[in-house]
Amino acid sequence: YEVSMDFWINGRAVSVDIDLRTSLLDLLRDQLSLIGAKKGCNQGACGACTVLADGERINACLALAVQYQGREIVTVEGLADSHGRMHPLQAAFVEHDGFQCGYCTPGQLCSAVGMAAELARGVPSQVTGDVAAEGIALSRDELRERMSGNLCRCGAHNGIVAAIAETFAE
Ligand code: FES
């Protein structure tokens, strides 16, 4: 069953006909050619599909697109500024070799941006229950825990953590 819906993606209004069963990830990748968000597990376990919805990180593979009508979606393609300059976190990933094959990178980037917003809002750790102290300062262990929904199979975690820490946590 197809319906016409309006979305707000990376600062642009988008109207599209979608099947009600379409996931947000499939809408982005297959219908809008925004292929930054990746399909890894397609069941909420790897984080490769992470995007931002009203600033909150979500697994787009688990989200029905229809639920996000009118919400502000940001994908990795939307992280650079309007002049095409990389987001500071993207630059830090380059500097710290925060990737190898790059498959998890879009999800890592969006997840970290969402994590920083959670810290700023005082969202406590799901493991320790702790709220990050002043501002968004947090330990490397806490950072790893908060980013634990995003897997890297290459072994670039140390660079990823270093890049995120430099941008948001130090
Ligand atoms: Fe969505 Fe793995 S593809 S969490």
Walkthrough of the structure:
The chain is α+β, with helices and mostly antiparallel strands and 170 residues long. The chain has two domains: 77 residues, Ubiquitin-like (UB roll); 82 residues, [2Fe-2S]-binding domain (DNA polymerase, domain 1). 31% of the residues lie in helices and 16% in strands. The chain has five helices and five strands, in the order E-E-H-E-E-E-H-H-H-H. It has a five-stranded mixed β-sheet, sandwiched between helices. Helix 2 packs across helix 5. The model has no long low-confidence stretch (mean pLDDT 92). The site of FE2/S2 (inorganic) cluster has 12 residues, from loops. Keywords: 2Fe-2S, Iron, Iron-sulfur, Metal-binding, Oxidoreductase. This is 2Fe-2S ferredoxin-type domain-containing protein. GO terms for molecular function: 2 iron, 2 sulfur cluster binding; metal ion binding; oxidoreductase activity, acting on the aldehyde or oxo group of donors.
Fraction of residues in H or I helices: 25-40%
* Name of the CATH architecture of the largest domain: Orthogonal Bundle
Which strand-content bin applies to the residues? 15-25%
- What class, by secondary structure content? alpha+beta
What CATH calls the topology of the largest domain is DNA polymerase, domain 1
Bound molecules: FE2/S2 (inorganic) cluster
- Strand neighbour order, sheet with most strands: 2-1-5-3-4
